[in-house]
Amino acid sequence: MALMFDAVLMFALALNATNKNNIIDVQNASCEKDQSGPWIFGNGIIQLMKTMEMEGLTGKITFDKTEGFRKEFNLDILTLRVGGLQKIGLWNLSSGVDITSTYDDVVVDAGEYFKKNKLRVTTKLSEPYVMLKANAEQYSDYKKYEGYCVDLMEAIANYCNFNFTIQLVKDNSYGILDKATGEWDGVIKELIEQEADVGIGDLTITYDREQAVDFTMPFMNLGISILFKKPTKKEPLLFSFLAPLSVDVWMYMITAYLGVSISLFLLAR
Predict the structure, then answer these.
(1) How far is Cα of residue 135 from the mean position of the Cα atoms in its chain?
(2) I want to staple 240 with a disulfide (CB 3.0 to 4.6 A). Which of 58, 175, 234, 236 is the partner?
(3) Is the pTM of this model over 0.90?
């Protein structure tokens, strides 16, 4: 709205300045008559606006005289937080983006949000990471579950002072990409569609999954490898220098050597 106001105001000032020197005749537009061609006063008003400067609602307004682009202006970078829209930085043509918000501000804001809202954690039952307790009916929310991932999530929640709830993934899948449709299922799908905030479990980090969601540092690395017998060194044999070539190759070389020698001997006679 402020940009629209400044644009109309500058056009009005340019139009008024042009009207002082020339009587602007505005003709009625007609859909039946051919009125092709630009307005005769249009180019003059544009050139005049390029030279004008004014203070508007959006700050100082000045234009580049060749291209006509606006210059020397700042843009506020806003983000949506618990208390509403808040300014976190500036942008201008000369210095680019300048973020004034700090990491501590983000942490505090996130803490305030999760004090009022529970973090939705999606997972899949898998021993020993996430398991259903034997007497689960006696508990509610995440207390029904146990395992390494549950303990890890509870420790993070206590440290960062937030509440969370655990929900089991609907299709009992970690997340597989359908190459034909480009659609995900399982935990990855619920994260993409914002049905959950965090996914936790023994979820393998793959290239396709990294393109869809963000991962934290893994809490466990699998050392998958191939075992083979360590080769033993053998004592070199007397004729080991012959090993690089096969017996047939050596025979051909000897035959060729003898043939060339005999031919040279006969030619010399």
Answers:
(1) 42
(2) 236
(3) no
